[in-house]
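Example record for the data management plan.
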Amino acid sequence: MPAQSEKPETAAFRPYVAAEVRMAESTSRAVALGAVLGVIFGAVSVYLALKAGLTVSASIPVAVLSVSIFKWMGKSTILENNMVQTVGSAGESIAAGVAFTLPALIFLGFQLDYWNIFLLAAAGGMLGVLFVVPLRPPLVVKEHGNLLFPEGKACADVLITGEKGGIQAGKVFGGAGLGLIYKFLMGETGGLSFWKAQPEWHPSWYPGATVAGEITPEYLGVGYIIGAKVAGTMFAGGVISWLVLIPLIKFFGSQLPEAIYPGTVPISKMAPLDVWRAYIRYIGAGAVTMAGLITLARTLPTIVSSFRAAFKELTQSKRAGAAAGEQVERTESDLPLTAVLIGTLVMVVVIWALLAFHVNPGASGNLVSAVLIVIFGFFFSTVSARIVGLIGASSNPISGMTIATLMGTCLIFVAVGWT
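Corresponding structural encoding:
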């Protein structure tokens, strides 16, 4: 159709570094610097995840620091800098995933040592990498121009600017300095206390409603990164929760003398925050799950076509083309599907062994749990990839996906009589 031919996604994707260009990329110094920055920003992500329930992508600051550090050390390539931000961002993302999940096990009484945490995080990170391989063609190549990947584009702009000699790390350190001054003036844990970190207002004429905010440097930075449109969407969700749903629940539920599951006390005795914890979070998790199902339904045709193409390569592989004098372009050289499948099976075994011998010995559902981890992992990898393409990694509702996964697993276990 003529109208469809003008869609942005039909524009050919052309990488900044041409496929035929050969330059340094996966060097030891790039991997080492990425690992160091990943540890630093991983600690920041864990702090934000535990304190605020959200994280901020480290790609942009890692890219800025990489360009600046390599410029100080000597000449580097744009692909080396890209490798640094990739490694650094991966470390930060895995740390955030750990912060969203493992504290629940600690609260339930499980003793988690360093190696258990390391193996769980490594297995989850490896599965994420493996799942991204078949998702790259449908979500990055075929959706080019449709999915904007705002933070990824900003990161690419930083790397390109650095390649041309126009990037400085001063803005990153300047932002850190402003955050320090702001925190000192706010005085949350000492300082001058010029204003409250968490102002609240409970209007007496609107029972159950709360107008509040946590005006901290990390949140101001998050808002600056994600922009007004995404911040407005998140603000709208807060308005619906705190000024519509919670007052409605308080109004209709206050007449009931008994607690309504999952609440443990009657609604009449709940504060607005208790209502949010008992009910609103699960409503949000359901919304995330439904959005994920819609997203999966929309992307399923391209995912299936990607898998078909990958299976075709098993019998009519790129190696055959190379033997005939045809060479695979650097930008099209993906991990073979056989490696993806074998790696996924290995991760299932690793997760099962960890559950069976360390976390939950003797339980009958350990193998099923390992398989469910892979199924839910692929589903939410697809959802996450599309969300990141639409609104950026910092706005990816990881905690909501975690709750949705937990609810889905519990429903399956209840259905088969395991709990």
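Summary line stored alongside the record: The beta strands are 200-201, 211-212.
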